[in-house]
Specification:
The chain has 81 residues and is mainly alpha-helical. It has one domain. It contains three helices and no strands.
Length: 81
């Protein structure tokens, strides 16, 4: 009977260690930084392109788009993409 008790105690402790080890590794996994970096790079590239297209369309350089400048901006966007 003592052998059975020791075996059960070892099995319970072992399974507890395995569960806690699994929990520790599953919560400490790093985020997919490669994907995040690519997304950030893509977003920055698109924003830079938007700024460049805006500057091309803003013919009077007042920082605002009139209706004709806005139409030009949309044409430039369609041509770029």
């Amino acid at each position: 009977m003592k052998t059975l008790s020791k075996t059960l105690a070892v099995a319970i402790v072992s399974s507890g260690i395995a569960v806690s080890a699994f929990a520790a590794t599953s919560t400490t996994q790093p985020a997919n930084t490669d994907h995040s970096a690519k997304q950030t790079e893509r977003k920055a590239k698109m924003q830079a392109q938007q700024v460049a297209l805006f500057q091309q369309a803003d013919s009077n350089k007042d920082g605002k788009l009139s209706s004709t400048e806005f139409a030009k901006f949309n044409e430039l966007k369609k041509a770029a993409w």
